[in-house]
Amino acid sequence: MPRVAFIALLLAAVCACDDPWEGPTLPSGAHWITVRAIAGGPQNCPTNEPLIAATSLEKVDARVLATCAGRGCNATVGCWPGLIPPRDSIFVAVYDPNGYCGAASKGGWAVSSSTLYVISWVGRATGHCGEAGLAAGVGLYAVARSDLPKVRGLIVELQDQSPQHPTGVFDTEINLG
């Protein structure tokens, strides 16, 4: 009987996990790129904009500051004081709910002829967490202009491809000049 109980427990554990092949999928016509995470950001910052993109760090900082003042951002120095932005980049702030509760999270960045994709995927939760496990934060990323298509208006699109609770798509457009 103990052997049957062990096998049943093992099967339950295996069923609760994500399959190795599960994760984000590449949008049609796009290819993966590498993007540099340059800083964490304010925590517990509710926002109606899960994605903010601009050609300068100052523009991104001002928009994040508008919703995150007092939560890791200071009205006089902004959210990323002293950060020296990489040259020849665009900047993307991504709101990350962090409510994974032990679930695997995968993501990626891709680009097509006119769109930069920020792709998020969160698998099945493997544990229970309370309010502390649901702290949200903002991450700041730099995308090299050399990785972007040569277009005037670039669409930056956040896709949540999570199987359990997909939030869909949120996009914004920036003028690359």
Report on this structure.
By secondary structure, this protein is α+β, with helices and mostly antiparallel strands. Helices cover 15% and strands 35% of the residues. The chain is built from two helices and nine strands; from the N terminus they run αβββαββββββ. The chain has a five-stranded mixed beta sheet, with no helix packed on it. The chain has a four-stranded antiparallel beta sheet with strand order 2-7-4-3, with helices on one face. Strand 5 and strand 6 form a beta hairpin. It is globular, with a radius of gyration of 19 Å.
Q: What is the element layout, followed by pairings?
A:
Layout: H1 2-15, E1 31-33, E2 36-43, E3 51-54, H2 57-68, E4 89-96, E5 105-111, E6 115-122, E7 137-144, E8 153-160, E9 168-175
Brief characterization of the structure:
This protein is α+β, with helices and mostly antiparallel strands and 177 residues long.
What coarse outline follows from CA principal-axis ratios? globular
Mean pLDDT across all amino acids: 78
Beta-strand content estimate: 35-45%
First and last CA, distance: 71 Å
List the helices and strands in order.
Answer: HEEEHEEEEEE
The main β sheet shows up as:
5 strands, mixed
Task: Tell me the structural class.
Answer: alpha+beta
Report the count of strand segments.
9
Trace the largest sheet across and list its strands.
1-5-6-8-9
- Helicity, as a percent range: 10-25%
Low-confidence stretches: 4-15
The DSSP helix count reads 2
Q: What integer value in Å does the Rg equal?
A: 19 Å
